[in-house]
Design a protein that fits this description.
The complex is a heterodimer of chains A (439) and B (580). Chain A has 439 residues and is α/β, with parallel strands linked by helices. Chain A is built from twelve helices and 21 strands. Chain A has helices at 130-133, 154-164, 179-191, 215-229, 241-254, 268-276, 304-312, 352-374, 381-398, 406-420, 423-426, 430-436; strands at 9-10, 13-16, 20-24, 33-36, 39-47, 50-55, 68-70, 76-79, 87-88, 104-107, 124-125, 138-139, 143-148, 169-177, 198-204, 233-239, 280-281, 287-295, 315-322, 327-330, 336-337. In chain A, the strands form four sheets. In chain A, strands 9, 13, 14, 15, 16, 17, 18, 19, 20 and 21 form a ten-stranded mixed beta sheet that branches. In chain A, a hairpin with a 5-residue loop joins strand 17 (280-281) and strand 18 (287-295). The longest helix of chain A is centred in the last third of the chain and has 23 residues, at 352-374. The model of chain A has no long low-confidence stretch (mean pLDDT 91). Chain B has 580 residues and is an alpha+beta fold. Helices cover 32% and strands 23% of the residues of chain B. Chain B has 14 helices and 25 strands. In chain B, strands 8, 18, 19, 20, 21, 22, 23, 24 and 25 form a nine-stranded mixed beta sheet that branches. A six-stranded antiparallel barrel of chain B has the order 1-2-5-4-3-6. In chain B, helix 4 crosses helix 5 and helix 10 crosses helix 12. In chain B, 55% of the residues are buried. The chains are: A alpha/beta (439), B alpha+beta (580).
Chain lengths: 439, 580
């Protein structure tokens, strides 16, 4: 972003906070980019002649006589096929040592798709993980986060899901990613031989936090290029959205905005929705599917970030360590895919939704039995059967290391039903019992 | 002359404008930015500075950009053709926009001005009429769409002439009226009305006196909503709020349904206009979409227009109510609307109320709910707007400002419970916390006595009590253990499970169980109460559990069978045998 010769250079800052600077300037437009002391910044407030700029890399060391040049344009990304296989920073500059991208320059954070032009998502995205495919089936055009505590292997699961999913492009938006995790993603993509369909925009913990605010828009602008212009199926991975929201709160705090719940800005819902709602099934074959990670503080989903996220996304996937089997499982109670009924029984076998409900209900009975056991009560025969079933169910279906087809998952569930229960105890429709019960 | 101004300040979508003349609160203005006109609404005036909220992205807007004030508030265009349309919050027709992406400053006409409608006159020359009186009608789908004296007309008019029957477009003058001063005014098939002002033009607004059937047992049987009543559904995410609301939209006994998707997911709206055109209205046998209008301001669309969308939706309902029709307004979710108010209040640096919401939140909400209701029109006929809003409480905690304010305004409360949803007991409406104040209305009781059966409300209360006793029993069992309580506790617990599984729970995705007409609800409740009214003896609690589990299974199979089919009666027989 070289400065141009005729541009006016301002040299008098009137105010500096940790994330913003303000100065007097004329003819400046909202959202426009500027360079402050060589650092990229964006206009966030205009009040008469006083312009407030958010400096992405922080304001440390910026003097009041720093040079400020306005660039006349909001942030952009150059898009073309050349993006494939490349790694970029939050500004869209290559960090893999390769050349700059040639292509059409597009504003990031552009307008949304006319809801009327959307199509209903209807294509199944199989992942091989039964906790997802059986209980919380994913559909192209969906947006869904993993809700996970920081110690859980969410990035590994996400990489597995991405590499198994049948998509044309995988775009990773890494926000506050540790360098180790960044290298993990890079190595898994390389090892899978999938580099040619990967595009990464990375902000690591070594980079300034406010820069993160650009990452989702960069990733989604690239995604829209491939989905809209090239009719491709694009999967966008965003990790970790909690750190993104933290950056939002830093900026709003520096601008003296009144915080709402959990010191988050009052606009958190809209800010997150703008990102997640980019997930779309287009009338052409193209689609954008978003899988994100929202890290939780000790499983607390009432915090403003997971709470607002849950209202925006089409479900959520919970990871939980299961004490019975010692494995990490997809929690069947709290996980949900809101679009699952669009494919269950339509793109999969007819018994899918009943089998799913019955298996989860029986698992819930097992949890009740467990509570009874913990409280020192005698267990009935049914309770014992439920507990045994729960162990098998967690090991053979809920664990994240399962990798089988959906029909196999259904057959496994029927096998477990027959092993532990009578048909009436499952509460499944008689017609399906007659057809699938394992005798 | 129009008032003009220039932009002096911008924070996100709040823009300050220095004006050169008079401006009104809520007046509409257009800001010209980069050659595009952006619509905005005045929300505060301070001296010569007006604060306006822009209904579009303000990217690229500059200090000094020109502003032109329109001298009117935000209006909607009313007339035939509203039904089966998909609008954004400002009533732009989304279907006629060409681009895949929403273009800034692209405003499309709400109604088709070319289409011809078959007009039949109702009023005759010489008739005395006033605002909202019927002059003629056209057929919109299967509904008689009345052409009315525009709501904005004040005083009494004399009909001078009415167009003879024939096919006309909506801009045709279909009637000429003479006002009290002797001046002639033309009336076409369309009129405009400011959305934030309630449509009056009716004689009175009596108490609701009948219920609106939804086919959902936990509503119709347990906590019915009145026609012209108000209700709200709060619940944490993932508790089935949207599924329940869609079920009501599909099955609700209303002539016109307006769904306001207010700051919610776009895919949910897509689901409506993908599925509704295929679905058949169970009450009329016509396509559902023919009676449905969608106001769609999804969560990624501009925040200010989100606030407008609920008002737009309400105004459309009031318009159809004035035709003597039963309208149902579903708004999902009113919390997003409240959040839009919060964002603006925040940017204007107003002193915040609880949770940073504006202090007048409660007043704004109750004002809005008050626009629903049954009315008696000037000609003695009745019309109704039933309103059900959803609330998305932060963190699922019902002690937050939007839920609390709404609780004061709405008469029905359908609390969705996380633990019921976790157990997949859908719809997850909590049986004990939820209520319908209409059950206390003598006129509603009389209505139910007559249409369902004598003493119906008392039966409903018995069912509620079974659940309450079951809950107490289950708490005792959890504390004292299965063996530590008398058998009667187990029996009480399982009776409540029976009511829960057979009456409360309903499979919204099953072709038959999804819709349960009132007559079938009566049959099932009578059967269930019959079972629960009997005394049982068991040797041990496991036998008790097995017995009720088998019974529940039979009754659920009954719910899955077509009403009064052979299969249905077979299950009924088997149940009767079990309890004999």
């Amino acid at each position: 972003m070289a400065t141009k010769a005729y541009q006016r250079v301002y040299t008098k800052l009137e105010g500096i906070t940790k994330a913003t600077v303000s100065l007097k300037a004329k003819g400046v437009s909202n959202d426009e980019l500027a360079v402050v002391d060589g650092r990229l910044a964006q206009v966030v407030r205009i009040k008469g002649d006083t312009i407030t700029l958010q400096v992405f890399s922080g304001t440390e060391g910026i003097p009041t006589n720093a040079e400020v040049v306005f660039l006349g344009e909001p942030p952009t990304l150059k898009v073309s096929e050349q993006l494939s296989g490349r790694f970029f920073d939050a500004y869209g500059h290559p960090i893999d040592g390769g050349p700059e991208i040639d292509g059409e320059e597009r504003q990031i954070g552009g307008p949304s798709v006319n809801p009327y032009k959307r199509r209903q998502p209807s294509q199944l995205i199989p992942t091989g993980i039964a906790g997802i495919d059986l209980n919380n089936t994913l559909v192209s055009g969906q947006k869904i986060p993993f809700f996970a505590d920081p110690d859980q292997p969410y990035n590994q699961v996400m990489a597995d899901v991405a590499l198994r999913a049948d998509v044309d492009k995988i775009i990773l938006g890494g926000m506050g990613l540790s360098n180790d995790d960044y290298l993990f993603f890079r190595h898994s993509f390389e090892a899978a031989g999938a580099l040619d369909k990967i595009i990464c925009f990375i902000n690591t913990t070594e980079n300034p936090p406010v820069e993160r605010l650009l990452v989702p828009d960069m990733a989604l602008t690239a995604a829209e290029y491939f989905a809209v212009d090239k009719n491709e199926k694009v999967l966008v991975l965003l990790t970790d959205m909690t750190l993104y929201a933290d950056a939002l709160s830093i900026v709003s705090n520096r601008m003296d905005q009144i915080p709402s719940k959990d010191s988050m800005p009052g606009s958190l819902y809209s800010d997150l929705a703008k990102i997640y709602e980019k997930a779309v099934q287009l009338p052409t074959e193209g689609s954008i599917t978003i899988i994100a990670v929202t890290t939780l503080n000790d499983g607390d989903i009432t915090h403003a970030i997971p709470d607002n996220t849950g209202y925006i996304t089409e479900g959520q996937l919970f990871l939980r360590a299961d004490s019975d089997t010692g494995k990490v499982i997809i929690d069947p109670f709290r996980s949900l895919s809101r679009l699952k009924q669009l494919v269950q029984g339509k793109k999969t076998r007819e018994d899918h939704s009943q089998v799913m409900n019955a298996s989860v209900r029986l698992y819930a009975d097992a949890q009740n039995a467990k509570t009874k056991l913990e409280n020192g009560f005698d267990l009935s025969d049914y309770d014992h059967r439920c507990l045994d079933y729960a162990k098998d169910y967690a090991r053979e279906l809920l664990a994240i290391d399962v990798n089988i087809g959906i029909t196999d998952m259904l057959d496994t569930a029927w096998k477990l039903f027959a092993k532990y229960f009578s048909p009436a105890e499952t509460g499944i429709k008689q017609a399906l019992i007659d057809k699938y019960w394992v005798k | 002359m129009k008032t003009r101004g220039i932009v002096t300040g911008i924070v996100s979508n709040l823009v300050t404008v220095k004006v050169d003349g008079p401006v009104a609160e809520n007046e509409i203005c257009y800001i010209t930015a980069q050659g595009v006109k952006l619509m905005a609404e005045v929300i505060k005036v301070n001296g010569e500075n007006a604060s306006v909220q822009v209904f579009e992205s303000t990217r690229g807007l500059k200090g000094g950009d020109a502003v032109e004030f329109e001298g009117r508030m935000l209006e909607v265009e009313l007339g035939p053709g509203l039904l089966s349309s998909v609008y954004d919050g400002l009533q732009n027709n989304l279907a006629t926009m060409e681009n895949v992406f929403l273009q800034r400053g692209e405003y499309t006409a709400p109604l088709d001005h070319q289409k011809l409608w078959d007009f039949t006159p109702i009023a005759k020359p010489g008739d005395k009429v006033q605002a909202a009186d019927w002059l003629g009608e056209v057929k919109e789908g299967w509904l008689p769409h009345k052409i009315m004296v525009p709501f904005a007309f004040k005083g009494t008019y004399t009909v001078k002439s009415v167009k003879e029957a024939g096919a006309y477009n909506i801009d045709t003058v279909v009637a000429v009226l003479t006002n009290e001063e002797g001046e002639d005014v033309n009336v076409t098939m369309t009129q405009k009305w400011p959305v934030k002002v309630a449509v009056k033009g009716y004689k009175e607004k009596p108490r609701p006196n009948r219920i609106m059937e939804t086919g959902v047992r936990v509503i119709d049987t347990m906590n019915p909503i009145a026609e012209g009543g108000t209700g709200f559904i709060p619940g944490p995410f993932g508790c089935g709020k949207t599924v329940l609301q869609h079920a009501i939209a599909k099955q609700g006994d209303a002539d016109v349904i307006v769904m306001a998707a207010c700051g919610e997911r776009a895919n949910e709206v897509v689901e409506i206009f993908t599925e509704f055109p295929e679905l058949i209205d169970p009450h009329t046998g016509r396509h559902l979409m023919e009676r449905t209008t969608i106001i769609c301001n999804t969560s990624n669309m501009p925040v200010a227009a989100r606030e407008a969308s609920v008002y737009t939706a309400m105004t459309l309902c009031e318009y159809y109510r004035a035709m003597g029709l039963k309208c149902l307004l579903l708004a999902d979710s009113t919390s997003r609307w409240a959040q839009a108010l919060r964002e603006m209040s925040n940017r204007m640096e107003e002193l915040p109320g609880a949770d940073a919401f504006p202090v007048d939140l409660s007043a704004i909400i109750s004002n809005f709910y008050a626009r629903a209701g049954m009315v008696v029109l000037n000609n003695g006929q009745t019309g109704a707007v039933t309103f059900i809003g959803t609330v998305s409480p932060a963190g699922g905690n019902l002690k937050e400002p939007v839920t609390e304010s709404t609780k004061k305004a709405a008469r029905c409360f359908y609390a969705l419970e996380q633990n019921r949803a976790d157990q997949k007991r859908y719809p997850a409406v909590g049986p004990l916390d939820s209520y319908s104040k209409y059950l206390d209305y003598p006129e509603i009781r009389a209505f139910l006595d007559e249409t369902v059966e004598k003493g119906w409300v008392d039966k409903v209360l018995v069912a509620k009590n079974i659940i309450r006793r079951g809950k107490e029993a289950s708490e005792q069992i959890n504390i004292l253990g299965d063996d530590g309580v008398p058998m009667s506790y187990h029996i009480n617990f399982w009776k409540s499970e029976l009511v829960d599984f057979v009456i409360l729970q309903q499979d919204a995705f099953d072709a038959i169980d999804a819709l349960c007409p009132l007559e079938r609800q009566r049959f099932m409740l009578d059967l269930v109460l019959d079972i629960c009214g009997k005394d049982y003896e068991f040797e041990d609690f496991e036998k008790c559990r097995d017995f009720f589990k088998r019974l529940i299974n039979e009754l659920r199979q009954m719910n899955y069978s077509a009403y009064e089919s052979e299969q249905f009666w077979a299950y009924n027989e088997s149940v009767k045998k079990m309890i004999a």
